[in-house]
Specification:
280 residues; mainly alpha; MetI-like fold; 13 helices
């Protein structure tokens, strides 16, 4: 019995050590961004980097807001990411439900086509997208980013939700239909609560893709007031001069919404595993 207790304590200590090591690896970049962002200029370019500063300053924050329209660019990122995520979930849920629950000619073909569309490398679509958006006169607007990001996030959401809806028993939906629900009501009241983890996963994917994407946002918008945060932070590099203080504090502020989203989504995923499983 003593040997088993000692083995259990050693196993617990080893697991805690591994957890601490993982946390160190994950959190150190965030700590380094914040540290670099609050260091004075005199400490940023020392031959030997330091892991702490005795003279924290907000000068880099002030410089960031003076050099760039940071709040405007954050607003652009929030608008583009929120709209893209919302539309992705709506289209993904409706299309995924259609492909998994309804029977009609060409259903399997459409499902396969969506899957192969998702496999197309994004770099291959740059020139066609630019030509198309130019003809639609959508360049230098936020709409061009929303439409392009939907082209990448929607096929993923449809395919994931199609597979998730397929795992939900048909009997639960049939019971809702017998109780007088329409197809859309059954989808909203029964299917979506059970598919909450899949919905959250798709939402996180769509939001993160839209929030962090750089290349399309740089190519399709030329105005600084229409840039999103990744492009705005890249604009702090002047030739071979890197404004590390402004770049790092901007990157730290940019990462906060994503961190909050992941923290909130973890609890929602656990809740979604059992939501709607029983009636009444």
């Amino acid at each position: 019995m003593i040997g088993y207790a000692m083995q259990k304590r050693l196993h617990h200590a080893f697991m805690m050590f591994l957890l601490a090591l993982v946390l160190l690896v994950v959190l150190f970049p965030i700590y380094w961004m914040l540290l670099t962002g609050i260091k004075p200029k005199s400490e940023l370019y020392l031959p030997e980097p330091t892991l702490w500063t005795n003279n924290p300053t907000l000068a880099n924050v002030r410089s960031l807001f003076e050099r760039t329209p940071f709040l405007i660019q954050m607003r652009n990122s929030v608008i583009v990411s929120t709209v893209t995520t919302t539309v992705t979930i709506v289209i993904g849920a409706l299309a995924g439900y259609s492909l998994s629950r309804l029977r009609y000619p060409g259903r399997d073909f459409f499902a396969s086509a969506i899957f192969f569309i998702y496999l197309i490398p994004g770099m291959m679509t740059l020139i066609p997208l630019y030509v198309l958006m130019s003809q639609l006169r959508l360049l230098n607007t936020l709409y061009v980013l929303m439409l392009c990001y939907l082209g990448f996030s929607t096929p993923f959401a449809i395919w994931v939700l199609k597979g998730y809806f397929t795992t939900i028993p048909y009997e639960m939906e049939d019971a809702a239909l017998v109780d007088g629900c329409t197809r859309l009501e059954a989808l909203y009241r029964v299917i979506l609560p059970l598919a909450a983890p899949g919905l959250v996963a798709c939402a996180i994917f769509a939001f993160t893709l839209s929030w962090n994407e750089y290349l399309l946002a740089m190519l399709f918008n030329n105005s600084r007031n229409l840039w999103t945060l990744p492009v705005g932070l890249a604009g702090l590099v002047y030739g071979d001069v890197f404004l590390w203080g402004e770049i790092m504090i901007g990157a730290f502020l940019m990462s906060l919404p994503v961190l909050v989203l992941y923290v909130l989504a973890q609890r929602f995923v656990v809740t979604g595993l059992t939501a709607g499983a029983v009636k009444g």
